[in-house]
Amino acid sequence: MPVDHYENFPVASLLLPKRLRQPIEAIYRFARSADDIADEGEAEAAERLADLAAYNAQLDRIARGERVEGPIFAPLAQEISEWKLPIQLFRDLLDAFSQDVVKTRYADYAEVLDYCRRSANPVGRLLLHLVDRATPENLERSDAICSALQMANFWQDVAIDWKKDRVYLPQDELARFSVSESQIAAGRCDANWQALMDFQNERTRALMHSGAPLVHALPGRMGWEIRFTVQGGLTILEKTRRVRGDVFRHRPQLGPTDWLRLCGRALMM
């Protein structure tokens, strides 16, 4: 399962074959550091965008076959070359992180999905390239899993994102359920809020399940890694539903007692 900042990017767990841990760590290091540029610290927007543009410039150098240095880009260049990873997927990540700097509201579900297409889906696609399983059907299912993981993270982090002046709940659906942003600010969980969060959870759960058959198309330990990832995301959604969307006072997290349940569910997939 994802670790550290509770992001939805898989990392090189012990479940994975040893030969894949190094390239996955290089991908994770790139994605984590770029995401931190967009999210962490007190830098102004212009500085954040400039730093992300510098990351893009390094990708340009890698694409041209030029030498790059440093703990992030030197290993990444080596893995891109060795595994023939599509550089556009890394550019998509940077595009999403840059968007986070300047865009704080999403008009509708299509806009949220488009953000997920660039912020989360590239990581799943890169994993499929690493195991040589990047077929159209597998890519579609991977996208469903990654987008669902990203949205599960959105729903559990409504309060955290509000402090950054970000609202990933679609604006048209806030209106449909008669929920205002002042209600988010107050952390008020009335019947309208509960209905809105139940709706988001159910749609995200269905999206996750639509991608879940991917686990049967992946070899060995990679399949098990994704089983745990899927079940972890579903568990977060269940916890969010259990508190009726009151993520202001009860932020869903995976605890020690959840892991045995995850093992059992992973075995049943």
Q: Span between N and C termini?
A: 16 Å
Quote the CATH topology of the largest domain. Farnesyl Diphosphate Synthase
CATH H level, superfamily name of the largest domain: Farnesyl Diphosphate Synthase
Give the tally of structural domains. Answer: 2
Brief rundown of the structure:
This protein has 269 residues and is mainly alpha-helical. It has two domains: 11-102, no CATH class; 105-269, Orthogonal Bundle (Farnesyl Diphosphate Synthase), CATH 1.10.600.
Topology summary:
Layout: H1 18-39, H2 45-63, H3 73-83, H4 87-102, H5 109-119, H6 121-130, H7 136-156, H8 158-163, H9 171-176, H10 181-186, H11 191-211, H12 220-242, H13 258-268
Helix pairs in contact: 1-3, 1-4, 1-6, 2-4, 4-5, 4-6, 5-7, 6-7, 7-11, 7-12, 11-12, 12-13
Structure commentary:
The chain is globular. Residues 1-12 have low confidence and may be disordered. The longest helix is centred in the last third of the chain and has 23 residues, at 220-242. With 269 residues, it is mainly α. It folds into two domains: 11-102, no CATH class; 105-269, Farnesyl Diphosphate Synthase (Orthogonal Bundle). It contains 13 helices and no strands. It has helices spanning 18-39, 45-63, 73-83, 87-102, 109-119, 121-130, 136-156, 158-163, 171-176, 181-186, 191-211, 220-242, 258-268. The two termini are 16 Å apart. Helix content is 68%, strand content 0%.
List keywords for this structure.
mainly alpha, globular, geranylgeranyl diphosphate synthase activity, 0% strand, Farnesyl Diphosphate Synthase, Trans_IPPS_bact-type
